[in-house]
Recover the amino acids of this structure.
């Protein structure tokens, strides 16, 4: 009898373990999706009319610091605003890195492509630079209009300063709004791509060493 009871208990434990394993295999939780943003392509730098033979080769180097983010935006979650006051995030949808890290990489790419600087590096490198660029992410989220249409709003405050004496060289705002073609993640991410690219193109065009 004791042997039979032990066998029954063992069988019950095995059944529970198998049941838990099957439940894990058939989870109803949504699989997280990672969405990428591509680099912006700024307009080419116009040739310097004073210099014979074309533009003057850039001599200034710049370091792009990790951007500062408004509360709620220093995350890899994709943000949205409801009723212009309630901050929320899309379920199971993420950027490949926290938003400041992602925008730092894209800003470095945009400035390199602009041709305005001899070298552009993020602050994680060991190289020093002549100038330092600080970006503040004021807005980078979806804002739903009264009719329910998603609109991506990106606003970046850029401040360029000299490293040697910390003198302020220039400061300006780059901003863009793009409507998504549909209320689906693929369309929303495409609108993010357009708005971020436009804002970074403005940044690259306005920054001058």
């Amino acid at each position: 009898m004791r042997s039979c009871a032990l066998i029954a208990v063992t069988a019950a434990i095995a059944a529970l373990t198998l049941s838990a394993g099957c439940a894990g295999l058939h989870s109803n939780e949504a699989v997280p999706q990672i969405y990428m943003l591509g680099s912006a392509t700024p307009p080419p730098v116009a040739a310097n009319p004073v210099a014979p033979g074309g533009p003057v080769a850039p001599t200034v180097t710049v370091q792009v610091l990790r951007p500062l983010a408004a509360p709620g935006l220093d995350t890899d979650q994709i943000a949205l605003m409801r009723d212009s006051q309630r901050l929320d995030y899309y379920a199971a949808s993420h950027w490949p890195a926290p938003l400041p890290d992602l925008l730092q990489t894209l800003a470095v790419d945009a400035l390199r492509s602009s041709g305005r600087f001899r070298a552009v590096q993020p602050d994680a490198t060991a190289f020093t630079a002549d100038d330092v660029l600080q970006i503040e992410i004021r807005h980078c989220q979806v804002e739903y209009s009264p009719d329910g249409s998603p609109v991506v709003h990106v606003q970046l405050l850029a401040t360029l300063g000299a490293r040697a004496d910390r003198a302020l060289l220039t400061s300006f705002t780059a901003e863009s709004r793009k409507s998504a073609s549909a209320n689906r993640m693929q369309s929303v991410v495409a609108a993010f791509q357009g708005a971020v690219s436009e804002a970074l193109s403005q940044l690259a065009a306005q920054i001058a060493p």
Remarks:
- The chain has three helices and nine strands.
- The radius of gyration is 25 Å.
- The chain has one domain: 30-206.
